[in-house]
Structures are given as C-alpha cells and as structure tokens.
C-alpha cells in the first residue's frame, strides 16, 4: 500500500484482508452460516434481478477494496443457475 492510503479494519481494529462478493442472494443450499432458516424463511424477499450487482460493479468493488488492503477476494453466493449469464475468470495478482 502506498503512502496516505487507508486500511479498512473491523470493530476490533483488525485489518480486513478477505472479501466475499455474492453474485446472487438466492441459494437452494441454505447453509446455516450464511442463510439460516429463521431469517431466510418462505416469506423472505430476495433481490430483484435489477437490484443485483452487475459484473462491472463487482469488478469496481473488488478494485476499490484491493486499494484498501484486501488481499483475497472470493466470488461466492447463490446457485449459479439462477444467474446463468454470469461468467467469471480468475486472475492472480
């Protein structure tokens, strides 16, 4: 990081180095750590397609967080078939 750049930290002042960006908020796995049933029940309103981040927006977020010291970014979240047009390439560095 260059001189004068900020580092983002959590509530305990630890630097944040990892970021997960979800491609969609719907998922049929319902993992207890990210989609607990008591929150994401049958009446939960998921985002509309026009409310989801675009590929360009995800890229901009990733670049912005990398400039703030994030070192690892994972593209996660949701059943890929819900958003079938999304194709992601992974580039080191």
Topology readout:
Layout: E1 18-22, H1 55-67, E2 72-76
Parallel strand pairs: 1-2
The neighbouring-strand order within the major sheet is 1-2
> What is the strand tally?
2
Helix content: 10-25%
Biggest sheet details: 2 strands, parallel
- Report how far apart the termini are: 14 Å
Beta-strand content estimate = 5-15%
How are helices and strands ordered from N to C?
EHE
Number of helices: 1
Shape: globular
Which spans of ≥5 residues are poorly predicted at pLDDT below 50?
Answer: none
Can you describe this structure?
The protein is 14% helix and 11% strand. It is low in regular secondary structure and 93 residues long. Strands 1-2 form a two-stranded parallel sheet. The longest helix has 13 residues, at 55-67.
Quickly describe the structure.
The two termini are 14 Å apart. With 93 residues, this protein is low in regular secondary structure.
List keywords for this structure.
93 residues; little secondary structure; two-stranded parallel sheet; 11% strand; globular
